[in-house]
Design a protein that fits this description.
2 domains, two-stranded antiparallel ribbon, 6% strand
């Protein structure tokens, strides 16, 4: 490893050929901290996202920092512009690399170095999947209510077989941007999602909440089938609640509006 190695050549010309050491997706150990940085400690294992936007241009303010208008314009003063490790500043093949605090994420102790290195790559795949699904629904023309109904159906079906936390981790990164693009109220959308997931957890074949209730009941005469039968009114009420909130989003927003 050397602080300055072979220049990164993308197409053989500017803005990349600036004598910076290449290296994108990588992880490492914090060796030093900048002024005012107290979110990390020296010795922390971290994974790095290569892009740090300037935070000032139109695209950065829209969250599209990887398409920062100041890309490649920060030479000699990286604090004032877009930083792309391995393209405009030293990257992962350098012995040391400076990273913006917004691009550094702590690595859990049970995650290997190899896995941590691939975190950004895996995230890129999720970004691409999210964009593809969003573009498909927006370009195909169904109404927002049809798309919402499909999302509720997916939540309901997943609730039959896996737990709620796993469902949210799988679906929220895809569904939330789509809901925002459709102009759906975020609080109402979140409540609808929770109700749909919890309704699924009460339905066969693998309603996890039903089996939880069964494990807590000491009466051997009460079987799983009976618990499923008596849970039907509850998940029907949840589905009615979903329809009510979709028709009247103010139901979900009333209490937050009163408190905040």
């Amino acid at each position: 490893m050397t602080p300055n190695g072979t220049p990164a050549l993308i197409g053989g010309g500017p803005p990349f050929n600036k004598n910076f050491t290449p290296g994108h997706e990588y992880m490492g150990t914090v060796a030093a901290l900048g002024p005012g940085v107290d979110e990390f400690d020296i010795g922390d294992r971290v994974t790095v996202e290569i892009h740090a936007g300037c935070g000032q241009c139109k695209r950065c303010r829209q969250g599209m920092y990887t398409s920062c208008h100041n890309y490649g314009l920060n030479y000699g003063d990286v604090d004032k512009g877009h930083r792309a490790n391995g393209f405009t500043t030293d990257g992962g093949f350098a012995e040391y690399a400076v990273n913006n605090i917004n691009t550094v994420i702590k690595v859990p102790d049970d995650m290997s170095d190899e896995e941590a290195t691939l975190v950004v790559t895996a995230g890129t795949s999720m970004y691409g999947l999210t964009s593809a699904i969003q573009n498909f629904f927006l370009d195909s023309g169904p109404s927002p209510y049809v798309i919402l109904a499909l999302m509720v159906l997916v939540w309901f079906l997943l609730g039959m077989v896996i737990d709620s936390i796993s469902i949210m981790l799988l679906t929220v990164p895809i569904f939330e941007p789509l809901a925002a693009a459709l102009g759906l109220d975020r609080i109402s959308f979140a409540v609808v999602g929770i109700l749909a997931i919890e309704a699924g957890l009460l339905t066969p074949p693998f309603g996890l909440l039903v089996y939880t209730v069964k494990a807590a009941i000491e009466d051997p005469d009460v079987g799983v089938r009976e618990i499923f039968r008596y849970s039907i009114p509850y998940w029907i009420i949840m589905l009615i609640g979903i329809v009510s909130i979709v028709a009247l989003p103010g139901i979900a927003n009333y209490l937050p509006n009163q408190l905040f």
